[in-house]
Structures are given as C-alpha cells and as structure tokens.
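Issue 218. Parser rejects a valid record. Input:
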Amino acid sequence: MVSPAAETTFYLWLAAGAFALLGGGYIALLVQRWRALQVALAGLQASEQQEVGR
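Output the parser choked on:
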C-alpha cells in the first residue's frame, strides 16, 4: 500500500507537469500570435508608406 503522503506528492508532480505542458503550449501560442500581429502591423505600415509615396 502506498502512503498518503507519497500519493499526494505524486499527484502534485502530475499536476505540475500537466500545468507546465499546458502553460508552455499557451505561452508558445501567445508568442506565435504576437509575431503574427507584428508581421501584420509591419505589412500595414509598408502599404501606408506606398500609398503616401504615390
């Protein structure tokens, strides 16, 4: 039989691991969205400069 303390520790590690995976994925998604936004903004600025240049 596993002691309650060991079982609790195991579940805490399991939860921490799951949170790290989810958190890491969430952060990666945020970074991806931020880069896409920067690219879109750069494209808008470039098109505005072309409009002004005409």
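Fixed in the parser; the record now loads. The CA atoms of residues 4 and 12 lie 12 Å apart.
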